[in-house]
Specification:
This protein is globular. The model has no long low-confidence stretch (mean pLDDT 89). The protein is mostly helical. The chain is built from 6 helices and no strands.
């Protein structure tokens, strides 16, 4: 799955986790404890496997995808209320970690031109050929070709479903954004 969607889903997981941090007495967010951060990071990491298991192509090439994803991650973390920033940064990082571990050196070698060794074996099972839904243009393997049957339509549908589900999680917990006024602030004024 593209980096941008991994970032968005990581943020969605953090938004859901942030609902546990509302202080009912004064409606402020409190800093997350280590246990919540750990569980949310695990959910973010596992979300990567769920996304990569879906049939998907790559509508954005690697370098722009990484740049846009990094910008989105930074913007989301900075847009959060101060007590939530570390939670969001950690969960988004956890959602990206499998790609960094399994594909990081390959990206440095092939896209940045660095002379680093590249391992063909992957740690995470959703990056193994048997566990990946990754589709690419061309090829003779119907299970891996974006051009075979309705694979392209399935890829687009899967990415749209992920986008709208993650966006729904973000929108339903919009109070985590520092620029969203709390309705209780309006009543007090």
């Amino acid at each position: 799955m593209i980096v941008v969607l991994h970032v968005l889903v990581g943020a969605a997981v953090a938004h859901v986790a942030s609902t546990r941090l509302r202080d009912q007495a004064n409606y402020e967010f409190r800093r997350p404890r280590l246990g919540l951060v750990a569980v949310a990071c695990l959910a973010g990491l596992l979300s990567h496997g769920v996304l990569d298991g879906l049939k998907h192509g790559y509508p954005i090439s690697a370098v722009p995808d990484i740049v846009i994803g990094a910008g989105l991650a930074a913007a989301l973390c900075l847009a959060m209320r101060r007590p939530l920033r570390l939670l969001f940064a950690a969960v988004i990082a956890a959602a990206l970690l499998p790609d960094v571990i399994d594909h990081g050196t390959a990206m440095l070698r092939w896209k940045a031109g660095w002379d680093v060794s590249v391992s063909r074996s992957h740690i995470f099972p959703w990056h193994w050929p048997e566990g990946s839904g990754s589709l690419h243009p061309g090829g003779n393997d119907p299970a891996r070709s974006l051009d075979f049957g309705r694979n392209r339509e399935v890829s687009i549908a899967n990415q749209l479903i992920v986008f709208f589900m993650a966006t729904g999680c973000v929108v339903t917990t919009a109070r985590a954004f520092r620029f969203v006024r709390d309705p209780t602030d309006a009543r007090a004024a």
